Amino acid sequence: MSWDNTDTAGAKASEWDTNNYDAGGYDAKENTNADYDGDNWNQEKNSGDNAYGDNAAGGGAECYACGEIGHRKADCPNPAVPREFTGTCRICEKEGHRAAECPDKPVSVCRNCQEEGHEAFGCENPRKINRDHVKDMTGEEAWALMKTAIEERDLDDLKEAVEIYIKSNPEITYQMLEKKLRDESMGVYIIALEKELAASYTNMDIQGNLDKTYTVTWRWSPKPLRPKERQFWPSSPQENFDRLNDAGEPIDRGVPKCNNCNELGHTRKKCPEEIVENVERATVLCFNCNQTGHRVRDCPEPRTDRFACKNCNQSGHTARECPEPRSLEGVECNKCHENGHYSRDCPLQGAGGGGTCHNCGQEGHRKSDCPNETALICRNCDAIGHISRECPLPRDYSRVKCQNCQQMGHTKVRCTEPLKENEDAGYGDAGYGGDNNYEADKGADTTHENNAEGDGWGWNDNTAGTTTNQDWEGEVKVSTSGADW
């Protein structure tokens, strides 16, 4: 158990909703109309707007909102057409009307203050916090638990002990609690940060007052844990103490937020503004015809076999196993840019169909498609039947190019020009490349100069063995004139 958003905002689910409704807004005992017939779920017995099965898939059934055929209620572009309600009210269990029109509907209760006659949206009363789940202990026992949690550096146990202590002292405030922690040098700090919350969240103090400016956090050190927190951190202990008077923990307001106009108090369905299409909303893509706007189950096109042969488009085998000749549909020649043949079969001269083979010298095919035995041509004497390393003649240096001076007639070993440096610094004569300045650069990253100036909080104190919390551990003196404490 921890003193987080869920603990303070929850106040037990029973305090927020005393009715046993499911996720769709229907009573759990009434949502049993769907029957299983062995193959499909039959939802024909559903009443109201809860019918949502194959009949609402848009594949031919009528829309439950406007009555037209071809789309579902969720995708209906037309205004809703009132329909006769034939179901049972989930409040009084009588037929003939909906729960919203029930004459026996109980008075609405505010989810914030638990009072009747108004809703949570616009309620300015303090929130009624239910702490029945918290253990009953005396203040001394709860304070001893807090000390034990601090000694063990267990933040979860500390927040649980604070909950127990608050239950035994319901009138305590964050300022009083922080002053008591400083007086006894407990080693834990209540820091009030200036953080921006989501519109549906707010800060609540111990007594349930909402809309507090600063957010309370529990820290083991008075210094920010990360550099990015410094802009939200109080500059001094006195400023932190003043902030705690207007601070609380973030909780859910319990008020819905419209994702159409981004205002609180209603949902998109009941938004009075014109419905704006969300361009960032994910679109539905059909994997059968690759069109947007519908799913595969609603696709009007016949189903295609994704695993069919890519050559003959028949099922049962792959293109590698296809008995049909290679299909030339959609094939473009890289030589003449005509469709219907490959470049190796191009009838143009030099494209393979009328060119000369570089292996046998015959026309009509390429060297790669030559049916004759590969001919060995010596690069030293140009004779056929052997390669250059097997040539019986002396090496012809007039065909050799030097890799150092780029001249013909000799190799790099016999080159009289000075050897060029390896500009790429690769794995050749220069080893692993680069200058051998390892010793000069070895200590480049070991020197660090800290020129930051210190301040009242001791951001950059580097003195070993000294305590940097003098400003926090001293006796707190609070005056009406705002002097240091």
UniProtKB/TrEMBL annotation:
Query: What are the Basic and acidic residues biased-composition ranges?
Result: 439-451
Q: Does the keyword GTP-binding apply?
A: no
Q: Which UniProt keywords apply?
A: Metal-binding, Zinc, Zinc-finger
Q: Which domain of life is it from?
A: Eukaryota
Supply the PROSITE patterns for this chain: ZF_CCHC
Matching entries from Gene3D superfamilies are given as:
Zinc finger, CCHC-type
Q: Name one Pfam family in it.
A: zf-CCHC
Residue ranges with Polar residues bias: 460-471
The residues covered by the CCHC-type domain are 63-78, 89-104, 257-273, 286-301, 309-324, 333-347, 357-372, 378-392
**Region Disordered: start and end of each range?**
1-49, 426-485
Q: Which GO terms describe its molecular function?
A: nucleic acid binding; zinc ion binding
Per its record, how is this protein called by name?
A: CCHC-type domain-containing protein
- Native source organism of the sequence: Golovinomyces cichoracearum
Query: What lineage does the source organism belong to?
Result: Eukaryota, Fungi, Dikarya, Ascomycota, Pezizomycotina
